[in-house]
Amino acid sequence: MKWMKALSKCELFRRISPDELNIVFECLKPNVNSYGKNEWVAVAGERFTGLGVVLSGEVVVAKENAAGSRVIIAVNGPGEMFGEMAAFSGDGVWPVTVAARTACTVMFLPAGKIVGNCENSCMSHRQLITNMLEIVSGKALMLHQKVEYLAIKSLREKISTFLLEQYKRTGSTMFMMPLKRNELADFLNVSRPSLSREMSRLRDEGVIEFHRDSMKIKKVDALRSMSS
């Protein structure tokens, strides 16, 4: 398949070989659409067209708040998904707006067929369902964590708590951040400039060190004291 390199990066297709994936697609019968830069891929409130997987280019996933301001939720590239939380909500409409950041190609997978009976009764389809459950469960846990972060008032405490959780999860003081800077700002419910300033202060104080998505905790005890 032409897009196998991008699909191999997608969480939904973990532990499924290229040959098995071709068989799965015979059941799913996905739609593949191409978009020009700044074209709408999906519009909030319109009919849900299926779980999206970016095959090439980039898309911006955004939502407008009550005041009409646009909040960027994510910028997704090849192999990344959008719409997974809405896929089985029952509302049948897009909760977010997705626009082409660059010229892009997107595959849409019908949610019903992902969890429905497989025409070929293949093991790979069962793996697909397992992957989907893991993804939705992970998103739900992240939302639960976000509620806990909303209760933390200090920005420094929020950052320290988040970094300590990554340290605990990876078992290492050096790790790749799971969220982009703008995504982390949204997750912590703070502005990106404020987040960047506070992280720079922690770096200048010798508590952390970072470069792009790479993070190193230099003083674990200092972070613990800030998060308590």
How would you describe this protein?
Helix content is 41%, strand content 22%. Helix 5 (155-170) crosses helix 8. A hairpin with a 5-residue loop joins strand 4 (59-64) and strand 5. The chain has helices at residues 4-7, 18-28, 111-115, 123-150, 155-170, 181-188, 192-204, 220-227; strands spanning 31-35, 40-42, 51-56, 59-64, 70-76, 81-82, 97-100, 104-109, 174-176, 208-211, 214-217. The strands form three sheets. Strands 1-8-3-6 form a four-stranded antiparallel sheet. It has a four-stranded antiparallel sheet with strand order 2-7-4-5. The chain is α+β, with helices and mostly antiparallel strands and 228 residues long. The protein starts with a helix and ends with a helix. The model has no long low-confidence stretch (mean pLDDT 89).
What is the element string, with H for helices and E for strands?
HHEEEEEEEEHHHEHHEEH
What is the number of beta strands? Answer: 11
* Quaternary structure type: single chain
Q: Name the structural class.
A: alpha+beta
Radius of gyration, in Å, reads: 19 Å
Number of helices: 8
Intertermini distance: 51 Å
Low-confidence stretches: none
Order of strands in the sheet with the most strands?
1-8-3-6
Key features of this structure:
4-stranded antiparallel β-sheet, 228 residues, alpha+beta, single chain, 41% helix, globular, 11 strands
